[in-house]
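Hi P.,

Sorry for the delay on this. The queue was packed all week, but I finally got your sequence through. Input first:
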Amino acid sequence: MSSSTERRTDGRGRTTGSVLSGLAVAVGCVLFLGGFVWAALIYRPYTVPTDSMSPTIAVGARVLAERVDGSEIRRGDIVVFKDSTWGALPMVKRVVGVGGDKITCCTKQGRLTINGTPVEEPYLQGSGPASPIGFKAKVPAGQLFLLGDHRSDSLDSRVHLTDGDHGSVPRSAVDARVDARAWPLGSVGVMQRPATFSALPGGTSQPGPVRPITLAVIAGAVLILVGAAYGPLARRKARKRA
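Then the structure:
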């Protein structure tokens, strides 16, 4: 910033630089705090208690789950749900089937099929078949068929196949849809929608606003730091000139 700009005032003794730095801090605070408020209104944090969703979500990881209605859930979504048949605590699983689907496992190539169509599941733990045990299920209307990504270590719809709903849970049991990993730091990232489900009827769901929220928080932090740094830098420069 040139010395002529620094000497220019707003009529009340403040330099243009100090006015701009104050504005940067103010806008930064709005973006930073607004991002957190926005996230608090839309997302819920959850801790995944088991290894059943590994390697997608490790045991003990913190995730951000968007509050959604069960009718918005699509195949491939990872959901947080609670169902009395499964236990009293919230659970995290992946939706592989919706009402009307016929789920079968496994083909000779070890794949899961949905309505006779084999699906690639690159998110699975290990390189073996999609399930260590074979199974078939018809998902009732308004229900969801849920599996863990670590199929050899997941108590999921396969365990409840003899229940009245063939192991499925009602859409109303869904509390939220996992949108991002928030902890540990090395695994932070937005949850991608599996392309394997996009060609099936209904397609995949749209991600929530986690990206714009993250950008708002980062931009706010940068503006606050830049604005706050102006004062010390300007004083240091003034001392050098003197």
